[in-house]
Write a structure and sequence with these properties.
- The chain has 417 residues and is an alpha/beta fold.
- Among the domains are: 93 residues, no CATH class; 195 residues, 3-Layer(aba) Sandwich (Rossmann fold).
- The protein has 14 helices and twelve strands.
- The strands form three sheets. Strands 5-8-7-6-9-10-12-11 form an eight-stranded mixed sheet, sandwiched between helices. A two-stranded antiparallel ribbon has the order 1-2.
- Strand 7, helix 9 and strand 8 form a beta-alpha-beta unit.
- It is globular.
- The relative contact order is 0.14.
Length: 417
């Protein structure tokens, strides 16, 4: 239920960001980091407008969560009770295609939303067998869906007469068909110089983080490249399905060719859905994704902070984000002496921005990655690190931990000034 999900997500956002929200009762702004959920009083009002055939126990559960939020922020509980009573008396239904997906239970459906409004839902059980379209009446847009891939980027299917989006080198390089062709034919293997242990070992590490959160659910492999890990995830049989997502059309084509060559189909026992998507505008409903993996990708993203905010938005409570990337040139020494001690030496690296050999990619310090995640409410940072390789995992707070954090941040009453 969309409204109940809004309340759940509000708990998560407020738990991790309690100290940042003003206490004014006139504050109506949406959360700037995660979602379109408003403050508690507004979210609760939406409960009375439910149209998903919600049952009284579901409303009671939502009301209990919301009541604790409102209590924490010093607003009257009776608003919650009235909203829950009104919703419990409502008995209407909607078509399955417009229902919000349930992120916490296994499903063979792939659920997406319009990347513009984030409200119109699309559900598919497998890749289309012929070219079709996914239509959003609210935005008057139809997004291409073909046997090659779904395209849920903002401008897919639109011919713009004059405006051209400024491209970024780190992204555009991988849209080159030659680079896509070479990726698993020597390019990716070359990451060994930085300490990357190889695809099999990286897969094992990633699975140790992913399985507790996403076993039996749909996994999103963001910036999947040629499907190096998407195919492994699908072969494991541990997930209900795998969304292999990338911004590069040619990378998705490579993924498709590898899948067909290795298994003969994308619709096996663990189906793979090929999706063209922008990590800065993910076509998934808020709180609907159990886990996201991004192998050797974050250093290529144009705006990592925006991307992490989107990942935080779409993750379900308890969901996990797992990523690998390159550390800075000082990382090997920092692993011995401490990153703080060697930080001043970073200016000597000629490959950093402004250096003589600068690249379009960003090499990271571990603390930078921690900062990115903390800023968008992702917690419980764990990592494996060797030389200039790092794989880290963070999780979206559960409702219980969010409410505990909110209570701790406010002393149990009201909001901080």
């Amino acid at each position: 239920m969309k409204q109940l999900s809004s309340i759940r997500h509000q708990a998560s956002c407020m738990g991790s960001r309690a100290s940042r929200h003003p206490s004014s009762s006139s504050h109506n702004a949406i959360c700037p980091l995660h979602c379109t959920a408003r403050r508690p009083a507004i979210a609760l009002a939406l409960v009375t407008k439910t149209s998903d055939g919600v049952t009284a126990p579901q409303v009671a559960a939502g009301a209990a969560v919301a009541s604790r939020i409102v209590s924490t922020y010093g607003q009257p509980r009776r608003t919650v009770v009235a909203a829950a009573a009104a919703a419990a008396s409502t008995s209407t239904t909607t078509s399955p295609s417009s229902k919000s997906p349930s992120p916490l239970s296994p499903s063979n459906e792939f659920d997406f939303v319009c990347p513009i409004c984030l409200q119109t839902h699309f559900s598919l059980s497998s890749m289309p067998s012929q070219s079709t379209g996914l239509s959003c009446g609210r935005c008057q847009r139809t997004f291409p869906a073909s046997p090659a891939y779904l395209d849920l980027t903002l401008t897919s299917g639109v011919r713009q007469k004059v405006y051209k989006q400024r491209s970024w080198g780190g992204t555009e390089l991988f849209r080159n068909p030659l680079v896509s062709f070479a990726y698993e034919r020597g390019w990716r293997q070359g990451f060994a110089w930085a300490g990357f242990p190889g695809a099999d070992k990286e897969y094992d590490i990633a699975m140790s983080y992913l399985l507790p959160a996403a076993s039996g659910k749909v996994l999103v492999d963001m910036s999947c490249g040629s499907g190096l890990f998407s195919r492994r995830f699908a072969r494991s049989g541990s997930f209900a399905g795998v969304v292999a997502a990338d911004f590069s059309e040619s990378m998705l084509q490579q993924t498709r060719e590898y899948c067909l060559a290795e298994g003969g189909t994308l619709n096996g026992s663990t189906p793979i859905m090929l999706l063209r998507a922008d990590v800065g505008r993910l076509p998934f409903a808020t709180g609907s994704v159990a886990a996201i993996h991004a192998g050797a990708a974050i250093h290529c993203w144009p705006n990592p902070q925006v991307a992490l905010a989107e990942i935080s938005r779409v993750l379900a409570p308890g969901g996990v984000f797992v990523a690998s990337t390159f550390l800075s040139a000082t990382a090997p020494l920092g692993q011995v002496l401490g990153d703080d001690a060697v930080r001043p030496l970073a200016v000597l690296d000629p490959t950093t921005a402004g250096g003589l050999m600068s690249t379009p990619y960003r090499w990271w310090e571990e603390q930078e990655l921690r900062d990115l995640c903390t800023a968008v409410g992702l917690e419980d940072f764990h990592r494996e690190r060797d030389w200039r390789f790092i794989m880290f995992a963070v999780s979206k707070p559960t409702e219980a931990s969010s409410l505990d954090s909110a209570a701790a941040g406010t002393g149990g009453e009201g909001s901080p000034s």
